Amino acid sequence: MKLHMESCSNQKEVKQLGLCAPERMKRFRRHGQESQRERIKQELYGFNKTVEHGFPHQPSALGFSPSLQLLAIGTRSGAIKLYGGPGVEFMGLHDENAAVTQVHFLPHQVELVTLLDDNSLHMWTLRAHHGVSELLEIGRFTLTGPPGAPPSVTRVTAVLAHSSGDLLLLGTEGGHVFIVKVPGFRELEERNISLEKVTNGVPEDYGGRRSLEHVESLQENPVNPRQVLIGYGRGLMVIWDLDSQSAVTHIPATQQLESVWWTEDGGHVLSSHSDGSYCRWKVAGDDPQSEQEKSEVPYGEDPQKVNTMPPFLFLSGGMPRASYGDRHCISVIHSKTHVALDFTSRIIDFFVIRDGPYHTGEPSALVVLVEEELVVIDLQTEGWPVIQTPYLVPLHCSAITCSHHVSAIPLKLWERVLSAGALQNTHYSKKPWPMTGGQNLAPDPPQRDLLLTGHEDGTVRFWDASGVCLYPMYKLSTAGVFLTDSDPNDNLNQGTEGEWPPFRKVGCFDPYSDDPRLGIQKIHLCKYSGYLTVAGTAGQILVLELNDEAAEQTVEATVADLLQGQEGFRWKGHTRLEVREEPVTFPPGFQPFALVQCQPPAVVTALTLHSEWKLVTFGTSHGFGLYDYQQKNNVLVRCTLNPSDQLAMEGPLSRVKSIKKSLRQSFRRIRRSRVSLRKHHVNNAAKLQQANARLEAELAEMELAPVQRKIEPRSPDDSFTGLVRTLYFADTFISDSSHNTPSLWAGTNGGSVFAYQLRLPPVERRGEDPVTAHPAKEIQLMHRAPVVGILVLDGHGSPLPEPLEVAHDLARSPDMQGSHSLLVISEEQFKVFTLPKVSAKMKLKLTAIDGSRVRRVGVAWFGSTRTDDYGESGLTVLTNQGDLHVVSLPGVKLQVQYPCIRREDVSGIASCVFTKHGQGFYLISPSEFERFSLSARCVVEPRSLVEVSSETPSTTLPRALPDGASVERSSARRVMEHALLNDESEYLRNHQTTLTELNLNQLPTFVRVIPAGIEPTTLTLLAPCSYQLSHIDMCLL
Fold it and tell me: Which parts are the WD repeats (predicted)?
C-alpha cells in the first residue's frame, strides 16, 4: 500500500496529524497484524503451574478419611495436600505462613478442618466445579478468651471432630474444652467445659488435682457419643457427659499422659504414659472412679510380655534412649511375630486401613508418614512387605544433582525399561495401592515421557512423567563400576536373628552417599538406540547400553588429558575414582561398556550423545573432548583453560573463592547505564515520497528500539572462562555452502564458540577407520558472556532433528537446499549467524533490556489449540529473575513472558529442565518437582472428582471411624458441601439413640507411652472392629 501526498490537502494537514505518514501508516498496519498475532499466541501459549510431583517438604500432620478413602498431609509451610487413588490429588495453601499441626476430616463429609501453629482453625471443602472437585477454604476461626486471660487459655492442643458431624471439641493448653459448631465456627459458650468444672469433681486424694496441665487427648465414647474422654497432661482422665455437663468417671493416672484410646465396647480405656508404660482402666458401670486393671512396659525388663497382647499391637517409639535414641521405630506385634520397623527419619503419624466395603474388616495396611517419605506396610502378606507407592515417592532418596527429560519414548524401549525395573521390585508386595478415593478424570497421556534424575550416590532413577503421578520405573546404579569409600559395616543396622528388639529397616530414604565423587552431574539418553551416557563429579563419563539379560564384564577406562601437558597448573581437588579391575556382574537394564576419565577429574559440565555417529562429547572447566564409543578411543581433546584461571584447578569439593575478586566482578557487572531512545523524525515533506517506496519492507521490520542498558564487557581474566557450558552435534554447512558435513560445536563460559568438522568413515569401515576432527570455526562474543546454548537451523528455519529421528520416520528430513543458520545463545542475547560464513544476521538482546540473564534454554514445539495442523517451534528460556520467555524461531522475537520462580530461589532456577512440548520441571524443595506448562495445548494436571457415597451400611457400625462414626440411617443421604448449612439436631438425636442400643464385645485398644529416659511410645492394639479416632497418631484394629 502506498501513501501519496494527495491524501492530505497540504503539508499543514500532515503536521496536524502529529505523525509523519510512514509512522502513522506503520502503526495502523501493525495494529492489524498484532491483533492477528495475539490471537495466534493465545492458541499457542499459556502458562500454568499444573502439579507438584514428589514428597511434601517438611510434613507436619496426617489425616485419613475411611469413608472418602482420602489421605491428607499438612506441612510446615502451611500447605494441605489430599491424595486418593492414583491421579487423584488436591492442594491448598493457607494464607498464614504457619505450620499445619493437625488435620481432621468431618465424619462422612467432604470437609476437613486444619489447625495451624498460630492457633487458627480452617475449614476446607471439596466442591464440584465444572465436573471436577476443587479444594477450597470456606472458613477460619480463632478462639478468643475473656479479657485479660493468658494465651494458654485458648491455645488449642487437642481437636475432636464429633460423630454428629456438626461439632468440634477443642482442648486447650489451659485445660479448658471449648465446643464449636461447624461449619460456621460458632462457639457454644453454654456447653464449654471449663477447667474449674473438672477440678471441682476431682477426688481429694488425687495428687495432681491442683495442676492438671493441658488437654492432651479428646476421645468420643464409641457406643455413646454423648460422652467424651478428656485426657490431661498430668495424667488425669475424665469422662464427661455432654448432655448433663458433668463428669461421669475419673481415671486417676499419675504419670504424664501421652495418649488415650477407648475400647470398642466403651468398657475400658487404655492410656500411655511418659514412663514407657501403658495402662488398662475399667470404666463401665456406675463407679465414679475407675480402677487400673493392668500396667505394662513393652520394652522393659521382661519384653516377652508384649507378645501376650491381643491380635495386633502397634508400638511407636518406646525405645530406651541410652541404647536406641537414634532409632525411629514402630513395632508390629501379631501373635508370636514381633518386628520393630526402623525408619530413617522421624515418625510424624500413622494409621491403619481395613478391608471390607465399609472398612470394618481385617486390617490390610499400615500407613506411616515419616519426615522424608510415606511407607505403606502390607499386613496381610507374610513378612509384612512394603507396598510400592504410586505417588508421594521420595525423589530425594539420595539428593538430586541433575535431571534430564525425554519425550515420546518408543513403546519397545518403554517396555524394556519397565521389565528391568520389575526385576528390582520383587521385594515389594503384590497388593494394589490401598487408598482408592475419588475418580481420576484426567485423559490418558498422549505419549510416554521419561524424567531421569541423577543423584549424589551415583544412581540414575527413571520416572514415568507421562501423567499426574511421577511413578518410579527403574533405578540404575553406577557405584558398582568403582572402588568406593563405602563402609563395610553398613549392613549392621539390619536385624539379626535373636536380636532384641528385632529391628528391620524399612523405607528407601537414604541421605548418605558412599562417596561424593559418585554424584551424577549430566545425563543424556537416546530413546531410539537405547544408549545412555552419564557423567559424574570426578570427571567420569560412562556409556551404557540397555540389555535384557544380566552380564559379567570389565569396564576399562580411557583417560582424556584435558590439560594436554600445559605447565603451571596443579590440580588441588579430589582424586579420580578407581575402576574395578575384576569383572563385575551387571543386572538386566542399562549396563556400562565404556568409560572415559577426564584428567584433572573435575566436574563434568556438559555432555551430549550422538548415537547415529557413535560419539560422545563431554566438557569440564578445563576443556572438552570427543570420544568414539564404538572403537573406544578419544577423537579430540581441547584445552580451553585460561592461563590466569587458577580457580579452575581447585575443584568443587575444596574450592574457596577469593572474596575480593568476587566483589570486584559483581560490581563490574552491576554498572549499567541507559542510552536515550532512538527516534526517527521526518521533518521534510520531500522525504515522505522516499519513505513510501520502502514502506512495505519497513513495516515488517521497523520497531521502536527499547531502552537498553549498557553492558560492560567481561574481562578475559574472569574465573572459569574456559568452563564448557554447552556441546552440540550438527550435520550442516561448515566449510562451504555446497557440502554438508558432521560437526561439533562447543560454547564456553568466556563467550567463545569452537567448531570442529568431523570426518566419519563409511558404515562398512566404521569399526576400523578412525573418526577425525579438524578445527573449522572459532567465534568470540563481544561481551564475553557465557554461551549457554547452540542451535543450527535448516533452510526452512527449523531446528535440526535429533539423531536417528529421521531414520525412524518421526521427523521430516532437514532442508539442505537453503542456507543454514547458527543460533548462539549467551546469557545476555540470542544471536543468529549465517553458515558457513558465520556473519551476524540478527540478534535479540535480553540483558540490555531488562537486566536478566539466561539460565536455562530448550527447544520446544507449540501446537495450536484451534487446529492440530498448526504449530510453531520456539525457544523456552528461564532467566536468573525466575521469568519464563518463549522466543520464536527462526525470527528470534520475544513472544510471551511469565513470572515463574522467585529470583531468590537459586536452586530452583538451577534445577529447571524443559520438555520438547513446552512443559518443564523445577525443584521447589529437595523432595518436590513443580511441573509447569508454557503450551496451551499440552497440559498435564489433576482432574478429579470426590463424592460422598450414597450407600449406607446394612448394619450399624460399632465403632467411630477416624473421620467420625458411621451409623445406620433411615434413608440414603448424600452429604455435599451445602449439607453443612442444614440443622442436623434431629439426625444427632437419632444417632445417639442408635449408638446407645449397641451391644458390643469387649475389645482391647491402643495407647501411647513415654518413660523417663525412654523415647515416647505409641501403642495401638488391633482387634476386629476397632479404629483410630480424632488426632491420635496411632491406630487400633
Answer: 446-464
